[in-house]
From TrEMBL:
<comment type="subunit">
    <text>Homotetramer.</text>
</comment>
<dbReference type="GO" id="GO:0000050">
    <property type="term" value="P:urea cycle"/>
</dbReference>
<feature type="binding site">
    <location>
        <position position="274"/>
    </location>
    <ligand>
        <name>L-citrulline</name>
    </ligand>
</feature>
<dbReference type="Pfam" id="PF00764">
    <property type="entry name" value="Arginosuc_synth"/>
</dbReference>
<keyword id="KW-0547">Nucleotide-binding</keyword>
<keyword id="KW-0028">Amino-acid biosynthesis</keyword>
<comment type="pathway">
    <text>Amino-acid biosynthesis; L-arginine biosynthesis; L-arginine from L-ornithine and carbamoyl phosphate: step 2/3.</text>
</comment>
<feature type="binding site">
    <location>
        <position position="121"/>
    </location>
    <ligand>
        <name>L-aspartate</name>
    </ligand>
</feature>
<dbReference type="InterPro" id="IPR024074">
    <property type="entry name" value="AS_cat/multimer_dom_body"/>
</dbReference>
<feature type="binding site">
    <location>
        <position position="177"/>
    </location>
    <ligand>
        <name>L-citrulline</name>
    </ligand>
</feature>
<comment type="similarity">
    <text>Belongs to the argininosuccinate synthase family. Type 1 subfamily.</text>
</comment>
<feature type="binding site">
    <location>
        <position position="89"/>
    </location>
    <ligand>
        <name>L-citrulline</name>
    </ligand>
</feature>
<feature type="binding site">
    <location>
        <position position="119"/>
    </location>
    <ligand>
        <name>ATP</name>
    </ligand>
</feature>
<dbReference type="InterPro" id="IPR001518">
    <property type="entry name" value="Arginosuc_synth"/>
</dbReference>
<dbReference type="GO" id="GO:0000053">
    <property type="term" value="P:argininosuccinate metabolic process"/>
</dbReference>
<dbReference type="GO" id="GO:0005524">
    <property type="term" value="F:ATP binding"/>
</dbReference>
<dbReference type="GO" id="GO:0005737">
    <property type="term" value="C:cytoplasm"/>
</dbReference>
């Protein structure tokens, strides 16, 4: 098709992105394909992936270590926003897409490419996240999506790759489609496409089955500074270490499993399984600390903002004017969200059992019903009269 001469391809090492390399060159006339694999803490050995790209026909195979950026610039802002899509999914996979898009755009500029490419299909959310993010960062850059257009079945894709020396999967292919990074795993397809099928234990990797979890609870104290998690049990942790450590501790207690039918941006419903032990625990703890440090009007208003924020990120609008405006609001609300939250980890639950903050708005001598009560009970009568006056007038005028 001759749409581009030099292309930077987002590369995972799987069948689709590997086949994209010869397909771009043979079918679309691309002269040079540079692959980019992003290390986001997924635990894969990236050197074999880098070498596979070269064997598949890439002129250069880049590996970007972006885990630190992923946590600090994408995960932590989402925690400050308590981002849960449809009040359940903590966007563990969605948050990676705008970062990968930025890495693609940066690599295209560095290597003089006139296009970038990805292996997304036409049914998923990721195609939107990549295309829109790339357009926001560099609207002049072409975006190629071969898998969205080639119309090949899985078997045909494998056969096409074999023609160009790309080996077919040696072992029996898993029926599941799995994505993983430091924040969690997403699992779909195969038997999960029937929403009545209970997920088999084999789909989980980061979380234990409840039957295999410890029979004694574990207590954990999470320290926050301005809405950012910085310590566990009073010990400072770097961003990556904190997520890694908490994934292990919460996952050991079976915390972080989600089984949901979600609404994709393209208009279809999709049954998804997620594991996100640390991310869910942190959002749960952070939201609780806000209840201590935020005024009621700010806290209530922020809850609506959080829903909008989650939808924006899920729908691929990370680099949008509305997202930037919401970021400014969220950041302002976090100025006093500093303190410690005590969490009880037990049998699949992360229960908040304590919280404290130097900025706490909880006043014991006003809240108590004991002898130290400083609340003026007599003031309540006048308050109730004024507060209820519109309702009283409405009721009286409706009686005629």
């Amino acid at each position: 098709m001759g749409r581009a001469k030099k292309v930077v391809l987002a590369y995972s090492g799987g069948v689709d992105t590997s086949v994209c390399i010869p397909y771009l060159k043979e079918e679309w006339g691309v002269e040079e394909v540079i692959t980019l694999a992003a290390d986001l803490g997924q635990g894969d050995e990236l050197e074999p992936i880098r070498e596979k790209a070269l064997k598949s026909g890439a002129s250069q195979s880049l590996v970007a270590d972006a885990t630190q950026t992923f946590v600090k610039d994408y995960a932590f802002p989402a925690i400050q926003a308590n981002a849960l899509y449809e009040n359940r999914y903590p966007l563990s996979t969605a948050l990676a897409r705008p970062l990968i898009a930025k890495l693609l755009v940066d690599a295209a500029a560095e290597y003089g490419a006139d296009a970038v490419a990805h292996g997304c299909t036409g049914k998923g959310n990721d195609q939107v996240r990549f295309d829109v993010s790339i357009a926001a960062l560099n609207p002049d850059l072409k975006v190629l999506a071969p898998a969205r257009e080639w119309g090949m079945s899985r078997e045909e894709t494998i056969a096409y790759g074999e023609r160009f020396g790309i080996p077919s999967p040696v072992k029996k292919s898993s029926p599941y489609s799995i994505d993983r990074n430091l924040l969690g795993r997403s699992i779909e397809a195969g038997p999960l496409e029937d929403p009545m099928n209970e997920p088999l234990e084999e789909v989980y990797l980061m979380t234990r089955a409840i039957a295999d979890t410890p029979d004694e609870p574990e207590y954990l104290e999470i320290g926050f500074e301005r809405g950012i998690p910085v310590s566990l049990d009073g010990q400072p942790f770097s961003p990556i270490e904190l997520l890694t450590h908490l994934n292990d501790r919460a996952g050991n207690h079976g915390i972080g499993r989600i089984d949901m039918v979600e609404n994709r941006l393209v208009g279809i419903k999709s049954r998804e399984i997620y594991e996100a032990p640390a991310l869910l625990t942190l959002i749960h703890a952070h939201r609780d600390l806000e209840s201590l440090a935020l005024t009621s009007d700010v806290m209530h208003y922020k809850r609506g903002i959080e829903e909008t924020y989650s939808q924006i990120v899920y729908n691929g609008l990370w680099y949008s004017p509305l997202k930037a405006a919401l970021d400014a609001f969220v950041l302002k609300t976090q100025e006093r969200v500093t303190g410690t939250v005590r969490v009880k980890l037990f049998k699949g639950n992360a229960m908040i059992v304590g919280r404290q903050s130097a900025h706490s708005l909880y006043t014991p001598d006003l809240a108590t019903y004991g002898a130290d009560d400083k609340f003026d009970h007599k003031a309540a009568e006048g308050f109730i009269y004024v507060w209820g006056l519109p309702t009283r007038v409405w009721s009286q005028t409706g009686r005629g």
